[in-house]
Amino acid sequence: MSSVAAAHWQEARNLRLAARLQAADPQPPSLGLAREGVLRRAVGLTLEASGCSAPLGSRCRVETAGGRWVDAEVVGFAGDRTYLMPTADLEGLLPNARVVPLRRRGEVAVGEGLLGRVIDSDGVPLDGRGPVRAEQWVGLAGTAINPLMREPITQSLDVGVRAINALLPIGRGQRIGLFAGSGVGKSTLLGMMTRFTAADVIVVGLIGERGREVRDFVESTLGEEGLRRAVVVATPADRPPLARLHGALRATAIAEYYRDQGLHVLLLMDSLTRFAHAQREVGLSVGEPPTTRGYPPSVFAKLPQLVERAGNGADGRGSITAFYTVLTEGDDQQEPIADAARAILDGHIVLTRRIADAGQYPAIDVEVSVSRVMQEITDPAWRERIRRLKRLMAAHSAQRDLIAIGAYQRGSDPAVDEAVARWPAIQAFLGQDVAEASDVAASRAALAALLDDGPAAVAPNRPQEA
Ligand SMILES: Nc1ncnc2c1ncn2[C@@H]1O[C@H](COP(=O)(O)OP(=O)(O)O)[C@@H](O)[C@H]1O
Ligand SMILES: [Mg+2]
């Protein structure tokens, strides 16, 4: 057989195969005809195939020794070369192995059966409670909502945490960053919100944590009560970078599915930083330049793509309110990922080690935390109280060192005097036990009580304007 005839024959076989596969499996949608290739190079996490024709973002299977197959995703191409990255551990890879494009993009099985379940980035259950029944398939990458069609943020959302409800009110459909170093209480705060937030469904994406932390979060922090209305997608740190990326995408896709059912969803992503790190590994592996302090440009493209998927649905549909944790080691708020996250999110809550070390939990630094939708969901009296408390706290922290050693002279500054007089009450107001919930009405009432009664006579009502 001449080589031309062989090519024709192969083409015809591919067409027949494609037709058969399409008939057998109408869902998920096909990607058109794809051509099988051969593995030429495998260095680090990057695979290079030649002769392979598969669209960017699609899945391939690579044959390994012993006839097993591993999944890989097309992450780039150059000339005849297709670059792939594995979504599972690479073992037994052989030179010239077959690379067979799959006729589907990464698709996400969704349905009621997901509630209460813990799955991995491929949708495989991790909780040993049998398979999850899919009712529908949705895309891993989601479909963007026209920003002009999105419902604006107009309703406040009860998250059950007094300091947030009263001072950093969260709107339904808002995207908020939770900025903190490790061990300052991010996971614990997310756990509180999982249990107390007024949401129909809670989707938790645990991305790049240690395996032990995943177990801790599910069993202790979330508990049975929290898990009942939650879906957890866990991709620990030891999984390949693409799997970690897919974990975040899958969690978002699941949240989108519930939102499109008209439900109000709380999406908790721990952490956005690890998602960015995974994308950095992918980008660098395929030869992107590390342009911003070691991060390739694709990282800063992927972050808004992920975050923009949360938010309110098109008119009348449900909502996704999302919290993304951002690691700020050594309290470096200028770190590129923290910087990028601040720019694309509608607010940030900062947890500070200084406050946690003092045994004050949740360790929210009210002075530097911001909710950008406050104007839309609060009334003027409420905003005035928030400003007043922030001024008191700023006055106190300006003299913190003197106050701590008892060297502050009463009477030097009326604002500081009032702050010192009210300090125990402020601390009690900000502190909250993990098992205790405080709804929006109670939190607002507590703020009003904190400022309107008590030792108000110590100083004028508006210290900074006096
Ligand atoms: N609300 C809280 N009340 C009491 N202790 C807390 C609270 N939040 C955090 N902690 C303490 O801080 C530790 C680390 O919290 P964690 O939520 O795991 O931090 P992170 O997720 O930021 O690494 C916990 O093991 C606990 O001892
Ligand atoms: Mg944590």
From TrEMBL:
- Catalysed conversion reaction: ATP + H2O + cellular proteinSide 1 = ADP + phosphate + cellular proteinSide 2
Q: Where does the source fall among the domains of life?
A: Bacteria
Fetch the InterPro entries from UniProt. AAA+_ATPase, ATPase_a/bsu_AS, ATPase_alpha/beta_chains, ATPase_F1/V1/A1_a/bsu_nucl-bd, ATPase_T3SS_FliI/YscN, FliI_clade1, P-loop_NTPase, T3SS_ATPase_C
- Which keywords appear in this protein's UniProt record, sorted alphabetically? ATP synthesis, ATP-binding, Bacterial flagellum biogenesis, Bacterial flagellum protein export, Cell projection, Cilium, Cytoplasm, Flagellum, Hydrogen ion transport, Ion transport, Nucleotide-binding, Protein transport, Translocase, Transport
Q: Which GO terms describe its molecular function?
A: ATP binding; ATP hydrolysis activity; protein-exporting ATPase activity; proton-transporting ATP synthase activity, rotational mechanism
Family of this protein: Belongs to the ATPase alpha/beta chains family.
Protein name stated in the entry: Flagellum-specific ATP synthase
Q: What is the lineage of its organism?
A: Bacteria, Pseudomonadati, Pseudomonadota, Gammaproteobacteria, Lysobacterales
As recorded in Swiss-Prot or TrEMBL, the protein's gene is named: fliI
